[in-house]
Amino acid sequence: MIALLRKRVAALCGISPLPHPDAQRQYPMGGRVGERAGAASQRALSRGSTRETKKPHIVVVGGGFGGLAAVQSLRRAPVDVTLVDRRNHHLFQPLLYQVATAGLSPAEIAAPIRAILRNQRNARVVLDEVTGIDADRQVLRLAHGNPLAFDWLVLATGARHSYFGNPGWAAHAPGLKSLDDALAIRRRVLLALERAETERDRERRNALLTFVVIGGGPTGVEMAGAIAELARKSVSRDFRSITPHCSRVVLVEAGPGLLPAFTRRLSARAEAAVRGLGVELRTSAPVKAIEAERVQVGDEWIPAATIVWAAGVEASPAARWLGADADRAGRVQVDAGLRVRPHTFAIGDTACVAGADGRPLPGIAPVAKQQGQYVARAILALETGRTPPPFVYRDAGKLATIGRSRAIVEMGRLRLSGHAAWLLWCVAHLYFLTGFRNRLTVGLGWLWSYFTFARGARLITGDAEPPPPERLSAAA
Ligand SMILES: Cc1cc2nc3c(=O)[nH]c(=O)nc-3n(C[C@H](O)[C@H](O)[C@H](O)COP(=O)(O)OP(=O)(O)OC[C@H]3O[C@@H](n4cnc5c(N)ncnc54)[C@H](O)[C@@H]3O)c2cc1C
User: Fold this and answer.
1) 82-103: burial string, b at 16+ Cβ within 10 Å, e else
2) From the alpha carbon of 65, which atom of ligand 1 is closest?
3) Which of 52, 163, 241, 445 has its CA 20 to 30 A from that of 354?
């Protein structure tokens, strides 16, 4: 009864229940009572123990959209599943920009992987970083733990930023991929506003109030719109010397237009909506250099204390681990059944597979999810001697939001823009967000800020010491 009560309270609070003390005593590596947790722990040491249980051992690397979908699709299968991730949480990356611009708190868009898989009895979670794969011996190398043997391996390790061969830009123009990235950007944006409030030197103040976002894809557009609303509307009531017209937000795109994945008409609407928020657009304008607090666009240097990189990604090193072929973005070339080796699959942002039109499928959450569900079915088919059909992606459409009340949507023949599209965007994102509590708090938070322009998470954490003044004067 008490155990049931503890479970209910934990579920309501969105936290993982504390393990039963006996569970810890019996299974020091973290398994649950009543499970084959002891055997599972042993599997970390050798492949032989997998065969003792007579169940195939499936190792999934990455608890993002693809990896989690694969594990959850195996919940009723007679297999043992181990999910390895270097982070303890699943992250809803589409809303990261709202954490970076103080609209949401980190916990509202992330959930502990252990809590998500709490009730899946054939799955266990290992917090560790994969550093290599011995494909012949079917063993994973981990940064901290023992090598992990597998019968089937699913690589869903995602992607990271790419600075197109300019790694030095990373320090000056952080990208947005993890919660740490989002908090670092939030800190930069909020500190720039705080410093601008008391700055007397006009040039330095202008640089502090200039925000440059590089990349005109969905993330860049969302970031630019959200920064414009934060710097122009949300904070202007709280500051005494910053008015809505002080701030400058510049969105830089190397190509001829924003959101090239959408139809030209919808992209044009998005551009108009971005301009309507007071964002300066620089299209056909490749960035030539980025230094401390300034960026060169074409021949012009723009002094800006905050520069955000949303221009490029490269896949995780999965192709290198396997010595497999990769495309220009480092994505592993997989066959039509998403396999790289007979017992190894790669899915999501880390894999390259052609869609119905022959072009590589985009790095988006629905592709990763559908591939995760597919590999679960494919492994079960292969285990019973059947040949799985090739993977086919069902395109459910594309959405992108611009600020707090505009979006564009392309779903089959349906084309929407403006408020209606934004409402659809809100519903879709709430639906796919993990956890009822997160859906509720994010939904209420959006409603609140829609009417008030308030940004609930405007917290600067860490040391708020201003940088030496010469850095910005040098930049200008
Ligand atoms: C800012 C941003 C906004 C986005 N917006 C949208 C959107 O609006 N709509 C949309 O559809 N898509 C969007 N995407 C893309 C979408 O999030 C990705 O396509 C999706 O997350 C890919 O899923 P995945 O499972 O392949 O990788 P991920 O979700 O990135 O998961 C990879 C996992 O692997 C783990 N990992 C990586 N390397 C290792 C290692 N060596 N060892 C152990 N674990 C490892 C990571 O910790 C992570 O948990 C956005 C992405 C970003 C960054």
Assistant:
1) bbbbbbebbbbbbbbbbbbbbb
2) 25
3) 163
What Rg, from alpha-carbon coordinates, does the chain have? 24
Six-digit token pair at 290?
A: 């980025």
The helix/strand/coil state of 462 is coil
Amino acid letter, 439: R
Residue 80 pLDDT: 98
Tokens encoding 417: 């823009």
Share of the chain above pLDDT 90, in %: 72
How close is the Cα of 435 to the center of ligand 1, in Å? 18
* Interval 424-458: pLDDT, tens: 999 999 988 878 788 989 988 888 888 877 777 78
Report which protein residue has its CA nearest ligand 1's atom 50: 94
Tokens 């009572």 correspond to what residue? 33
Calpha distance 280→250 (Å, rounded): 5
Cβ atoms of 213 and 224 within 8 Å: the answer is: yes
CA–centroid distance, residue 66 to ligand 1 (Å): 8
Q: What is the pLDDT of residue 464?
A: 57
Cα–ligand 1 centroid distance for 360 (angstroms): 17
What one-letter code names the amino acid at 108? Answer: E
Structural domains of the chain, with CATH: 1-34 (no CATH), 40-86+128-161+314-383 (3.50.50.60), 167-311+398-475 (3.50.50.100)
Q: How far is the CA of 1 from the centre of ligand 1 (A)?
A: 39
How close is the Cα of 232 to the center of ligand 1, in Å? 31
Residues in the chain: 476
The amino acid that residue 226 corresponds to is A
Residue 294's φ and ψ, nearest 5 degrees, are -160, 150
CB proximity list for 328: less than 8 A, separation 6 or greater: none
Pocket test for ligand 1, best of 157, 180, 338, 422 (most atoms within 8 A of CB): 157
Q: How confident is the model at residue 270 (pLDDT cuts 50, 70, 90)?
A: very high
From the alpha carbon of 95, which atom of ligand 1 is closest? Answer: 3
216-242 tens-digit pLDDT: 999 999 999 999 998 887 777 788 888
Give the angle 285-187-227 at the CA atoms, nearest 5°: 45
Q: Which residues line ligand 1 (CB under 6 A)?
A: 61-67, 84-87, 93-94, 96-97, 129-130, 156-158, 176-177, 218-219, 316, 348-350, 363-366, 368
pTM: 0.86
Active centre residues (catalytic)? 222
DSSP annotation of 448 reads H
Q: Any residues with CB less than 8 A from the CB of 182 and at least 6 apart, and which?
A: 96, 97, 99, 100, 106, 176
Average pLDDT, integer, range 452-476: 62
d(CA 373, CA 271) in angstroms, rounded, equals 36
